Amino acid sequence: MSHIHGLGLDPADQRLYVATHEGVYTPDAEGEPELVGDSKDDFMGFPVAGDKTFYASGHPTSGGNKARQEHRPGQDLEVPVPVRRVRLPRSDFADGTVYGYDATNGLVRTTKNGLSWRDGAQLEALDIAVSPKDSGLVLATTAGGVPRSSDGGKTFAQGKGPVMAFLSWSAKGTLYGIDSSGGLNRSTDRGTRWTKVSTVPGDQPQALASVDAEHVLAASQTGVYESKDGGKTFAERLAVASSGGH
Length: 246
Fold this sequence. Notes:
Helix content is 0%, strand content 43%. By secondary structure, the protein is mainly beta. It has a single domain (4-239), classed as 6 Propeller (Neuraminidase), CATH 2.120.10. The strands form six sheets. It has a four-stranded antiparallel sheet, with no helix packed on it. A hairpin with a 6-residue loop joins β7 (53-59) and β8. It is globular and about 45 Å long. The two termini are 13 Å apart. Mean pLDDT is 84; it is low at 63-87.
């Protein structure tokens, strides 16, 4: 298992799911990666929507593009329906709106039904995060810092603050960001100020998921790690093969 793109913890049973370049995996009884379903598609966006429900985006391993699809853990993945033939490698959602970042065209896009998409701002970003308390507030990670949108991704202010690779917002409003060196940062004021908490083990971060204010999941080239004390300490949940990144 390598090339991790997303992490999710099912609220129903706290089971870990890992979205990768070769499908979605979960730890088996021995703690080893086990493929969920029979799909080995490339899952590049993977936010949790609720109990037993995730959203995913990416593309098939056989080539071409595929749409966002709803996935209930433990069930085979459904055949995807094309969405305007665009890839949405990063995704988030709030108040019934799904946000996607189209890396091919550098566009933030939104949808209410998963079929028709509205174009938003154009920017070069690696990740996006939507406030769980304000669906119009969107942050992105860019080479110039963390730009902010207050109108649902239609426009973004110039990026500022530390340069982050990935962001993740817990339902309670605590925001985490991880930089390219693995430094884990925390913000309690919606990304205005950041405090470095620790450094995630391993080289080159690959994914980040904030479960709640003190519970964080992070993936690097060496493993998937979990912290239950706000990122101060981490324990390994899964070992992964070294990869070259996304």
